[in-house]
Amino acid sequence: MSSMYGYDAKSTDDPCILAADKTFTLGMELLSPGGSLINLIPLLRFVPPWFPGAISQQKAQEARMLTKKVVSIPLEFTKAQVAEGNARPSVVGDFLKKKNTVGASKEEEEATLIVASTAYAAASDTTQSATGTFIYLMVCNPDIQRKAQAEIDSVLGGKRLPTYEDRPCMPYNEAIYREVLRWRPPGSVGVPHCSIEDDFYDGYFIPKGSTLLGNIWAMTHDETRYENPMSFNPERFFNPDGTLNDDDRIMAFGFGRRVCIGKHVASATVIPAVFNLEKARDKSGNTIEVNDEYCEFGLISRKKPFVCSIVPRSDISRELVEKLDT
Fold first, then answer.
1. 165-175 pLDDT, tens per residue?
2. In angstroms, how far apart are the furthest CA atoms of the chain?
3. Using N-to-C axis directions, what is the helix angle for 171-183 and 106-140, rounded to 10°?
4. N or C: which end of the chain has fewer CB within 10 A?
5. Which whole-number Å values give the CA distances from 43 to 40, 97, 251, 285, in the listed order?
6. Global pTM?
7. How many Å apart are CA 54 and CA 107, to the nearest integer?
8. Could you tell me the sign of the dihedral formed by the alpha carbons of 78, 79, 82, 86, in that order?
9. Distance between CA atoms of 293 and 296, rounded to whole angstroms?
10. The organism sits in which domain of life (predicted)?
11. What span, in angstroms and rounded, lies between the C-alpha atoms of 180 and 137?
12. How distant, in Å, are the alpha carbons of 145, 185, 276, 306 from that of 313?
């Protein structure tokens, strides 16, 4: 929400966060295979929400109301900040400033708000999942973490935080990003798609109008393409000469027109630039082992909570943490 609206949620009890989480829960229930009879009998979509037993319609109606709330809360905040002249840089804030100075069409305004709200909803879930997996893998693979940090320091010299422009100069961190989302994609299957024409695949007839789910897990764990697919190994994305190979398609973000709009936010989070991530210790100094459990929630896979040590790496990191705390 900070990048989209310049709005910072102070806690998990923020009304916008609560509304977004509830919307996500309802959406996953409706999107999941078998989650709604409407997916099996499309004619049921015409049943009104007030009709007894119209559970899916009631959930969809509630999700629409909550979605409006998710959009209106940060939007009204940003409008007020712009009017006062102290709005932080953000997609919506910058657009509103432009609208007030040079003008903008209603279509441009609607498109900006749709992108902002959709990006937040999409990025929040994929980023949470990818970040949880990334922290877990860095804690369990300290040698890989140190190698990545050494590359970061060689490029930045410990004087600033990385930007998108630095990405081509850090191939090992790019390989980690690819491997994190290959090893444990946020969703084992993609968002349901509908076939637009009759088709055949591997001897199977797929009628027009069929609901299709891409098996992302199978693609990212194909043993013919990835040796020992269950092992976490960023080195698999390098050519023998040390350059990155061309395997840069991130299946975890889906396919086609419904590719995850939050992918750019998620891709910016899996880099160990700011913190050292290590196993925690108890009061006696004994290492607390990390669990390897995941939970499946609808179409999203999330790492179960675990204890670890997160320590700022440098003065710049500590300054960043202090800014976040204030």
1. 888 999 999 99
2. 65
3. 90
4. C
5. 9, 45, 33, 62
6. 0.74
7. 34
8. negative
9. 10
10. Eukaryota
11. 8
12. 12, 28, 6, 21
